[in-house]
Amino acid sequence: MKKPVTVELTGDEALVLFEWIKRFNAQDHKDFEDQAEERVLWDIEAMLEKTLVEPFDPEYGRLLAAARATVRDSVD
Hints:
Elements: H1 11-26, H2 35-51, H3 60-71
């Protein structure tokens, strides 16, 4: 077995990534070159879902908006 790779994200980055993967995985048409790519996205979504508490918060929309504002590049 290969050595695991660790990727560190801030909580805001993890929340933004989770939301994007969740929406992407819900689409009917996806352009994958190999099913392994889809499997990896499913696995990342599941890992984030187990870690994050925000998706289950009634204020999820507000929390997501705040996380996006923090992660987004500033406009000068």
